Amino acid sequence: MRRMLVSRISRRVLAEHHIALSDSAGRNQGEKKEEGHVGIIYTGLNVEKSVRRCTALLRQLTHDSDNSQPSDTRDIRWPEVTIEGHTDAQFAYIREHLELALLSPVLSCC
After folding, report:
1. Domain-wise residue ranges, the chain
2. Could you tell me if 90 and 98 are in contact, meaning their C-beta atoms sit under 8 angstroms apart?
């Protein structure tokens, strides 16, 4: 099962990357090229920005006034997120995959 899932995810990533590269190659020369991307890979991914984006998304999801949610999920008080270390570090990575890894433990428990 694990091997099948890894294979499926790998094919999906390759297909998305191919489509993104094809789209960027098909653009007109006059159009501004989006900086920091090679296909779906961010070549200068800033982890601090991704963590802050995920934190803001979680807070927004739990503080929206959606009456369909039980009141206990709307009133969650999130702890303060402190980011330490090399906050200006950047590396090549697929942003969506990093953010899914950051969000999935929290979203799966709710």
Report:
1. 36-110
2. no
